[in-house]
Specification:
Blueprint lengths: L23 E6 L8 H16 L5 E4 L10 E4 L8 H15 L5 E5 L4 E3 L12 E9 L11 H9 L4 E11 H21 L7 H15 L4 E2 L19 E3 L1
Parallel strand pairs: 1-2, 1-4, 2-3, 6-8
Antiparallel strand pairs: 4-7, 5-9, 6-7
Helix pairs in contact: 2-4, 4-5
Length: about 240
């Protein structure tokens, strides 16, 4: 394993690289291939950081941006890949959790789509996988034809199921490692099948729904306790997370 990704370049708390992290954390992978989007991406990261640290929780972000220091925000700018983001995002989250056995539970989210409304960790149950809802059923997902036969069969057979969004995944460390590990394995199969260097947003969304429903049906939790509905622009919510 490459230990360089854990050598943080910017750590505002105590002013030195940390070796251990807290038991309950929020994580985000936010590289920026297009420098013209710098201001918007910084705004998204800072918005997420503000909502997370307001609940006295730490936010760990992997990014190539120079993010202003903020209490409770830990920024890792080492060896950031600005291409192949979807697969690299899964790999980073898996590696981070694998390295840090002191983590009990984590939320892995997208800064451009998620804000924290309430601390979820006191209410979460062990061995449950919590995810966000999309606005539509699986039948409404625009996926295209570049999916494996296994995924295509799942989508066809489960058209009426609520579509889930991979913008938010949370649970205890063991179930997150299991979920991310399967996504990485399936993602590798996708890249081999279609001769790609990454998995597309559409492929990842289809794959995420397949993995969540097929492998974690008994542990899966989604709904208004977890998040507002992605794409609904709900102004007021009692959920743990707000999805825009």
């Amino acid at each position: 394993m490459n230990d360089e990704i854990y050598q943080l370049d910017e750590v505002p708390v105590m002013g030195r690289p940390h070796q251990a992290v807290q038991r309950n954390i929020v994580m985000a992978y936010e590289p920026l291939p297009d420098v013209n989007q710098n201001a918007e991406k910084l705004k998204q990261i800072q918005r997420l950081a503000t909502t997370v640290t307001a609940k006295m929780l730490p936010l760990y972000v992997k990014t190539n941006l120079s993010v202003p220091e903020q209490f409770g925000l830990f920024v890792d700018r080492s060896a950031v890949k600005t291409q192949n983001n979807n697969f690299a995002r899964l790999q980073w989250a898996f590696s981070f959790l694998q390295e840090h056995s002191e983590v009990a539970s984590a939320a892995f989210c997208s800064a451009n789509e998620v804000q924290l409304l309430k601390n979820p960790f006191d209410e979460m149950a062990l061995h449950k996988l919590y995810v966000a809802d999309d606005f539509i059923a699986i039948a409404g997902l625009v996926i295209g034809n570049q999916v494996t036969p296994e995924t295509a069969a799942f989508l066809k057979q489960n058209r009426r199921l609520q579509a889930l969004s991979n913008c938010l995944i949370l649970g205890d460390r063991s179930i997150l490692l299991s979920c991310l590990g399967i996504l990485i394995q399936k993602g590798q199969e996708y890249m081999h099948e279609f001769a790609q260097t990454d998995i597309s947003n559409q492929q990842l969304l289809a794959l995420f729904n397949q993995v969540a429903y097929s492998y974690f049906a008994a542990q899966l939790v989604h709904g208004r306790q977890v998040s507002s509905i992605l794409g609904f622009e709900q102004q007021h919510s009692d959920a743990w997370f707000k999805c825009r």
